[in-house]
Structures are given as C-alpha cells and as structure tokens.
Specification:
Blueprint lengths: L4 H19 L18 E7 L8 E6 L7 H11 L3 E7 L6 E6 L4 E2 L3 H15 L3 E6 L2 E10 L2 E8 L4 E4 L3 H8 L9 E4 L3 E6 L3 H5 L5 H5 L5 E8 L2 E8 L4 E4 L3 H13 L9 E5 L7 E9 L4 E17 L4
Parallel strand pairs: 2-3, 4-6, 11-12, 13-15
Antiparallel strand pairs: 1-2, 1-17, 3-4, 4-5, 6-7, 7-8, 8-17, 9-10, 10-11, 12-13, 13-14, 15-16, 16-17
Length: 318
Amino acid sequence: MRLSAHSHFTSLQRMSDAMQRLGAFDPPRTRDAAQAPQASGRYLLLDVFTDRPLEGNQLAVFPDARGVEPEQMQRLARELRLSETVFILPASEGGEVAIRIFTPELELPFAGHPVLGTAIVVAGALEREAVTLETRIGPVTVRVRHEDGRAVSGWMTQPLPSWERYECEAELLSALGVARASLPVEVYDNGPRHVLVALGSTGEVSALKPDLMALAALGELGVSCFAGSGRHWRTRMFAPGLGVPEDPATGSAAGPLALHLARHGLIGFGEEVEISQGSEISRPSLLYAFASGSAEAVQGVEVGGSAVIVAEGEFLLG
C-alpha cells in the first residue's frame, strides 16, 4: 500500500510533534520518600584524563551531597555503574571541600581520576588556581590550569605510597595469561592497592585477555600491566575485585608507576612520564606523572591530566 502525499506529510508532522514533546518532557519524580536522599540529586558527568568529550575515564560528581547517607551514596554509585562516583560535602579540616569516593561495589579512601575531576569542578565553581580536597586518607591539593575562563587540567600531589613484593605472583600471572614479568611484581598502597606487572612490549599489554574471575578472587586490588620505554608508557588496569573489570584511566596507579620505574632504574627521579591507557576499550586517556627524591627517600609523587565536563543529570528520587 502506498501513502498519499498528504498522508506522508501528516506522518512527518506527527513525528516532529512527538520529538518536540519528548525534548521538553519533564518526568515526574518517584514518590518513595523513605528511600530518597534529602538533598539535590543533581550530578555532573565528566571525562577525565582527556580533553576530548567521550574519551578518558567517566566520572559522576554530585556537587552537593549534604543529607545523603553513605548507604545511599553506594546505591547511587551502583546505579550509575561508572568506575567511580564522587559526593561533595562541606570541608572540616581546612580544605575547600570534603569528598567521598565510591566504585559500584565499595568506598575508596583515595582515587586519582575522581580527585582530578572533582578538583576541576570545584576550581571552576570557586575560580581557584589550587584546591584542597579532604579525602578519607587525608587532604590532597590539586593545582588547576584555567583556559578561557574554564578549568581544564590539573596536577595533584598524591599520598606517598608504601610498597612490597606481591605474595600471590604465580596466581596473578596465571590469571593474566602471561608467563613472566620483566620487573619484580610489587604492590603499592596509596589508599587503593595496585599490583604493577611489567610486560615485554606494548603489544603484549594490548593483547591481554585476563581471567577476570580469577583476578577477582585475589581480592580488592587493581592490577596494572605496563610496557614502554623512556618517557612513553602504555598501561591497562583490571580491578574486578573492586567492581571495575577494566579501568580507562587510573590516576592512583599512575603515581606508583612513575615511582616503580624510577626505583628500578628505567627513568630518573624527577623525570615526567606520559602514560596512555584505555584505547583497548575505546576510551583513550593520557596521564602524566613523576616521582621526586630517591629510592631511599621518596619526596613526592604527582599526577596530572585534563578533564572536561560533558553532561549533567538528576536523580528523580524525591
């Protein structure tokens, strides 16, 4: 059956009207007040460790989480299913704000891309060139660069990590499907725990197909596999035990990686490295890091990168 020209026009008009109504649709809020936070459900969506929208590591930031209980924070993070979600609260120890960081499964005392992304939001709102965020592991200061009136990138001073030889190396390498690591396999702790595994080439890093169930059985840690030389390094980070199968960009592992490389003589202390991550899961990211001091006396670990706000949303919970 063929449509007449009039019928075709009418059909197109109805489609146009429908799209206009959908574009203006303001959905009703749910009425379950017993489960609703007594605060704004508004959040911002950022892409972190990139200056290009729809790349890097996604992050949700709730700018005003006053009145939201930790249990509800965890449920919201689980609903969003991003690597991490941040809730901003009033400061109590001299910083600009306090923050709580949640993966879909648990709360983290510190994480890199949540700190950088949140600092971009706070510095933009407060028009600051440096902000201090109160994390569960202590204050973290981020120096922020502005461009055309917008906060665009930053460098964070990370907590100094501790490190030790990883005890379950054989099980870890088996789960990764690799025969050996080219450096000692060590676990670094700067809030989250990251095991660093050096491989022979960037191609070997990209080809990894780990057994995520076996990795999850090793517990709540990230597994950062890397290769490269000089200033340029490639990494992939798997953390199924934290609810993150593969992370597009891991700031809390980037600082330990720079320290690991310096401790084992692959770069000098104070030498900045560029770390690419996430291209294997179509979220290319760039991170920068360096460690200062010496193997006997580490003085500082810093990580930097860009971030861009790409969207905002609101939970209709009350």
